[in-house]
Amino acid sequence: SEVKKxxxxxxxxxxPEVVAEAEKVLKRTEELFGYKxxxxxxxxxxxxxxxxxxxxxxxxxxxxxxxxxxLLGAVGGPKWDNNPKExxxxxxxxxxxxxLGLFSNIRPAVVFxxxxxxxxxxxxxxxxxxxxxxRELTGGIYFGEKFRREGPQGEEAVDTxxxxxxxxxxxxxxxxxxxxxxxxxxxxxxxxNVLETSRLWRETVNRIAPEYADVEVEHxxxxxxxxxxxxxxxxxxxxxxxxxxxxxLSDEAAMLTGSIGMLSSASLGEGSFGLYEPVHxxxxxxxxxxxxxxIATILSVxxxxxxxxxxxxxxxxxxxxxxxxxxxxxxxxxIAVDKSKAIGTTxxxxxxxxxx
Amino acid sequence: SEVKKxxxxxxxxxxPEVVAEAEKVLKRTEELFGYKxxxxxxxxxxxxxxxxxxxxxxxxxxxxxxxxxxLLGAVGGPKWDNNPKExxxxxxxxxxxxxLGLFSNIRPAVVFxxxxxxxxxxxxxxxxxxxxxxRELTGGIYFGEKFRREGPQGEEAVDTxxxxxxxxxxxxxxxxxxxxxxxxxxxxxxxxNVLETSRLWRETVNRIAPEYADVEVEHxxxxxxxxxxxxxxxxxxxxxxxxxxxxxLSDEAAMLTGSIGMLSSASLGEGSFGLYEPVHxxxxxxxxxxxxxxIATILSVxxxxxxxxxxxxxxxxxxxxxxxxxxxxxxxxxIAVDKSKAIGTTxxxxxxxxxx
Lengths: 356, 356
Ligand SMILES: CC(C)[C@H](C(=O)O)[C@@H](O)C(=O)O
Ligand SMILES: CC(C)[C@H](C(=O)O)[C@@H](O)C(=O)O
Description:
2 copies of one chain form a homodimer.
Chain A lengths: L2 E9 L3 H19 L2 E6 L4 H7 L5 H8 L3 E6 L14 H11 L4 E7 L12 H4 L3 E7 L9 E6 L2 E11 H16 L4 E6 L5 H13 L7 E6 H10 L6 E4 L1 H15 L6 E5 L5 E5 L16 H15 L2 H16 L17 H11 L1
Parallel strand pairs in A: 1-2, 1-3, 3-12, 5-10, 8-9, 8-10
Antiparallel strand pairs in A: 4-5, 4-11, 6-7, 11-12
Function (chains A, B): Catalyzes the oxidation of 3-carboxy-2-hydroxy-4-methylpentanoate (3-isopropylmalate) to 3-carboxy-4-methyl-2-oxopentanoate. The product decarboxylates to 4-methyl-2 oxopentanoate.
InterPro entries (chains A, B): IsoCit/isopropylmalate_DH_CS, IsoPropMal-DH-like_dom, Isopropylmalate_DH
Pfam family, one (chains A, B): Iso_dh
């Protein structure tokens, strides 16, 4: 079959460890399904700041542009937290999203059976929770003009939140399409009672909704959504929202499942190209100890197979392998009830590879 | 004792019902403690739109300005939801906050014993949760310039988020002072890795923190805070944040206690003047049935006594009365386990009045 180029960005903290296991999975699927992957590796985030003086080196960006998909571990850590803006890992993250046109961040929040009790929510409330947050990723207050100025009351800081109809339409359409493949319920989240950008957002949703007549649309104010996620998480199917609200709500949604360490995410643009990464961060506190959980990153590979390559069979095979390994009782420390029986990162990766 | 002027704004939905019970409490404390209250009533919100063509009539605003404190029921309802902006209840809300200089919204999120099981969080996670969100209320993206324009990609909407050091300093100082009277832990919430306003916010907190050396300060990113509120709610004491983040996080915090129907809030300015209201909304679905719960509004009176009038003894007496009535097993429908035994709004108000 056709060669697929995958840009692999290990990043910082536990990034390299978990990505190494995901690479084993890629290799195994080549053997089993006859795929051909060409992996290229690039520096990004804190390590790129240290070695190259910038979080997003030009060659890393070029590598991503030439690839069919990107697999990202995690970036950031306390070491770079007090750096000036252009020397911070998150500046690289915002830069790569914008440069690659990844306007849509898709984050499933599901409850893993083996982690049912890990949530701080009552099991009966959580029952059946399986939602996706579709977050706009390259617009809004993240990318608007920002500056300081002297005002009558002293120094002032300004951030600008801008959205145009084209930006709103493309993300909302994508959310409608995701909803059509699921339970056909879309919650559009905004703050239309206060923000002009939210009013344009809501108008746009209402304008294109008739084209997706099979999808039931609900408008939810962001403050209310933060409450309803807690009160009735299982009633949500697809949530679509702008960049800043999506940042907050997708983290809230992920955390309430109790499975945050197992969740994967996709950042997509117009075509099939996508960047895939675990929802969890670089966990600098446990980096290098070989105890991190590679499952979210391995499941990011499954997501890449499904959404970018259309390798549905292999995607399902990976997901089933993960499920079987968990059902057999194997756990890394973060998800183990009996920590003394926990296995390490490579052991978990090997078990999943063997189970595919 | 000195006459205190209280501006009473019943508002919409269940507002008039719950405010009527709070007025009984005011009356009872006059008899018991020798206070003198002069109540004036004004139109505000949806009812003001209907009767006067504006959500915030000038005479209502004047009445508030001449008062020592304002007691507000609730405003809004579906009837006005699709009105143009200047004819919507929330425009009145934003207008009154700005006009009265109420830059600080203080919202306690505590768990009521009788509602321990009403939360969707596990009781062991909730145990000991008692936090206050101090939200900046008259700045940020709520009040910055907003407009539409034609751009290269079609219609664009713009919202501007502005903060100056003076605005940040006064709210942060107030939060430090609240923290000093409590467990001396302050979490300042921002998005300093992305927003310029957040960077100014964080710099300001760090600059004045040494003046409150007994308070332990933690900076938390807003997305992380949305998660930590779920994971470790009881570890928070005072949370201070800007307007939009505060809107979202204070609702999340209130909902996780399970006690949202019982929580009161204060909006304060420079002096002792304040506006007091329940956290819950106007609940149009149950308005006029006499079944709403007046406790949050009655507790708003206690908060007014404590924060504006310095009537600590009476504030405590009201709170104890509420506790005793609840301990005796009386419940309105919203908090009753056995709905068939629920009592109505006036019955609950009368019991509390009798218990003071
Ligand atoms: C690191 C930060 C800039 C980033 C964001 O806010 O987008 C992160 O929180 C995320 O959600 O990917
Ligand atoms: C009604 C709305 C404008 C208001 C706000 O966002 O401030 C409300 O949500 C609140 O928190 O008081």
